[in-house]
Structures are given as structure tokens and as C-alpha cells.
Amino acid sequence: MIDRVRWGVLGTAHIALKKVIPAMQRSSWCEIAAIASRDLTKAKAAANELQIPNAYGSYEELLADDSIEVVYNPLPNHLHVPWTLKAAEAGKHVLCEKPIALNAAEARTLLDARDRYGVRIQEAFMVRTHPQWLETQRLIRDGRIGTLRSITGFFSYFNSDPKNIRNQVELGGGALMDIGCYPITMSRFMFEAEPRRVLGLIERDPEFGIDTLTTAVLDFPNGHSTFTCSTRLAPYQRMIFHGTEGRIEVLIPFNAPNDRPTQILFDTETIEIPICDQYEIQGTLFSQAIREQTDQPLPLEDAINNMTVIDAVFRSAASGHWEIM
Predict the structure, then answer these.
(1) Which residue, 127, 145, 183, 246, shows the most beta carbons closer than 10 Å to its own?
(2) What are the two backbone dihedrals, phi and then psi, of residue 255, each rounded to the nearest 5 degrees?
């Protein structure tokens, strides 16, 4: 019988309540044992709705619970590093929502905490373990499209609510931090390299100050990746991988559904990926790594490298020049 890993959740974020927790509760490797909120009433309501046994009225109380092994941190972006550091200091492993920090320098502080307290810290890029992406990487590695030379990506939705944290620049809001991080991580994943230089173009909301339309070019040793992300356009997402002998299109690359198969277009062939839940897979693999003391799916260094690219896009947009990595 599997010794389930005991998880605690910081906060009652929508993604936690509606996607991550229900998915992880279906995993034979995960036990959601506690949830915390700064409002005990909210914590109890969430615990009751999701049948979580323990509810705490502060994050500190949850971290003081010695039975909790791992913390899931879906707090607003500006609280990712502070509470991940507190969790690590309390001896908890951490799965932290993306982006893991507000910048790469802040993210690097997690390396010392990881090593000092002997815990695992991982960025919650659930897409990196979804079977559709593993199949895409396999096809590229096997040379099925020849040599990968160009990647194009697009990710958008419309959100103009001033109260939404994604529209608050001081909280780490904006299109690049929220959704532009996805085409960046998948470009790095498929090229299996880091970009040499980056060019960014940003349009900001005059009232909120956040980037609402961002386009970037990433220059890799073996080719280019270009993407656009926006929080002021109709919802759409797509990633296309162009090779010397063919192409691959991932139709729903980021918000992959958990109630129907996903599809990859491989030239004229459609490859169907069986129904799965990427949040369940993410929780299972991280829990397995902890329990079996094996490598975690995404090392912390990968999160720092992704944040480094995001920083470079911001700097390039401000300077109007390529940023050398």
C-alpha cells in the first residue's frame, strides 16, 4: 500500500480549489491534509467543500503542523518566494505556482533555502509533465520533423478587472508573468537549451501599468522561438514547432482539458492523447520523488532559468535592444 504524501495548501486561490486540489485528491500518492487562509471562515468553507480534514486561520499554523510534509503555494506572485522560504524553514517541501518569483534574483534565494533545509522546491509548471508534451518532445528528439528550427506560440485571454491580481503590477501581474512564461518554458523544453539573446516588445495598460500585449523573440543555438501573449485579446492558445522536414501543432498546449483527449497535429496525422489530468500527474510525480527519494520532474534551477528569460524580455522591451543572456 502506498504511503501517501501529506500536503498542506496555503490560501484559497481559485486554481487550488477548482483544479489542483480536486486533481491531487484523485492521486493515490497525495493526501490533502490541511488548508490555510488568513480568514478562518474561508479555510473552513474550503475544507468542508473539498473534504479536507484540517483548516487553519493562518499560514503559520499550517507550517507548524508537523504532520504536513509538502506545501502547495498558489498565493499571489509577490508572495511566492516569502512563503516558500517560510515553508522550507519549517522543513516542508514546496510546490510553488508559476512564476516562482518576481525576478531571477529573488528566485535564486530559494537555492540556499533548499540546500540549507534539505527540502525540495519545484515550480508548478504542470504542462511539463503532460503526455502531449512528452510525446511532442519524443517526436522532435526522434527527428520526425527533421531538425527543429522555429517555434511559434500564442496565448491570450481578456481581463480588464482592476481588482484582479493579474492587473496589479506591484503584485507581479501582467501577461508575461501570468501566461508568457508558458511559451518560454516550452520553447526551452523543446530546444533543450537556453536562449543566447532575447528581444521583447511590450504594450502596457496606461492605468494599471501591467503589460497587456507582449511579443518576444528568443534566439536559441539551433533556431528561433517567437511568441505573443496578451490579457486584452480573445482567448486563444497554440504552439507550433517547425522542422526541416515537417511540423507539429499542439492544439491546446496549456489549459489541456481533463475530460476529453487532447490532440497533436503531426503534419497530416492527428495523434490523440488519452484523457488525463495534468494537475494530478504533477502532484503524483512530485510526491513520488519525495517518497522514493528520486529526481523531481523539474529542478529548481529550471525555474530560475525561466525567470531569467522573463527578466530579459522586460529589459529588452525597456531598452529597445537585444538582451544577451
Answers:
(1) 183
(2) -95, 55
3-state secondary structure of 243: strand
The domains of the chain, with CATH numbers, are 5-124 (3.40.50.720), 127-324 (3.30.360.10)
* Contact predicate 268/289, CB 8 Å: no
Please name the residue ranges forming H helices in 167-240. Answer: 175, 181-191
User: pLDDT tier at 144 (50, 70, 90 boundaries)?
Assistant: very high
- Give, rounded to a whole angstrom, the gap between the first and last alpha carbons of the chain: 48
Angle at 262 between CA 258 and CA 267, to 5 degrees: 170
**Exposure class string for 46-69: b at 16+ Cβ within 10 A, else e:** bbeebebebbbbebebbbebeebb
CB atoms within 10 A of CB 139: 19
- Whether the CA torsion 92, 255, 310, 102 is positive or negative: it is negative
- Which amino acid, residue 269? E
Q: Is the pTM of this model over 0.90?
A: yes
Give per-residue pLDDT as tens, 219-265: 999 999 999 999 999 999 999 999 999 999 999 999 999 999 999 99
What are the residues facing 72 on neighbouring strands?
9, 95
Rounded Cα distance between 298 and 74, Å, is: 17
Cis ω before 99 (30° cut-off from 0): yes
Do residues 183 and 128 touch, judged by C-beta distance below 8 A? Answer: no
Give the pLDDT confidence of 53-76 residue by residue, as tens digits.
999 999 999 999 999 999 999 999
Which residue is listed with cell 524553514? Answer: 89
Strand arrangement of the beta sheet that strand 323-324 belongs to: 269-273, 262-266, 247-250, 232-243, 148-158, 223-230, 211-220, 197-204, 323-324
Helix (H, G, I), strand (E, B) or coil at 37: coil
